[in-house]
Backbone:
């Protein structure tokens, strides 16, 4: 490989690392799980961004507490509000920390993550004996970019869930 190509590749990798990972959740990713969240449950969306998840569940009549780092609430360290189930699409670079914290809080959760999280070394070790169940939407999730356009996502995503009644260990939509 020429040194020019090497420099080009390094620059592409570096700029990708610096790009903020802010991709919002489209309705399609929520419609497939809506029926697994019974009416009356109080939802905590702890990385709410522009409120795509919170808005979806509010429309369905849920009481939703929506917080975000941007509004002063760091999910990894904050005192949690009263809630019945935690539902979020966290920044993927913090997927390990979000999973660990959500599980430690001891209540049901649904985290939207790349399916390849299953392949991560940390996940293989951490998930042993934890009853984390994987809900796989039928299609790839095309996340919403900050400019409002849909991304053409190349990877599959899944809901990593715990203690949500009716979801199998590996659950295909
Ligand atoms: C990928 S966006 C998703 C937003 C929203 N959950 C959705 O699905 O549309 C991730 C969000 O996590 C927030 N965030 C990043 N680190 C956080 C943290 N430590 N605690 C809480 N929110 C965080 C960002 O500000 C951003 O709004």
Residues:
């Amino acid at each position: 490989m020429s040194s020019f190509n090497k420099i080009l590749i390094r620059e592409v990798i570096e700029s990708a690392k610096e790009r903020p990972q802010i991709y919002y959740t489209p309705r399609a990713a929520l419609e497939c799980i809506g029926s697994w969240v019974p009416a009356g449950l109080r939802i905590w969306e702890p990385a709410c961004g522009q409120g795509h998840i919170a808005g979806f569940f509010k429309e369905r009549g849920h009481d939703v507490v929506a917080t975000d780092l941007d509004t002063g609430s760091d999910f990894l360290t904050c005192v949690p509000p009263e809630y019945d189930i935690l539902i979020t699409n966290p920044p993927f670079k913090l997927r390990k920390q979000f999973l660990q914290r959500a599980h430690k809080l001891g209540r049901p959760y649904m985290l939207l993550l790349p399916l390849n999280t299953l392949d991560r070394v940390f996940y293989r070790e951490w998930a042993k004996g934890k009853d984390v169940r994987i809900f796989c939407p039928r299609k790839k999730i095309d996340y919403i970019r900050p400019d409002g356009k849909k991304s053409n996502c190349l990877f599959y995503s899944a809901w990593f869930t715990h203690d949500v009644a009716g979801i199998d260990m590996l659950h295909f939509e």
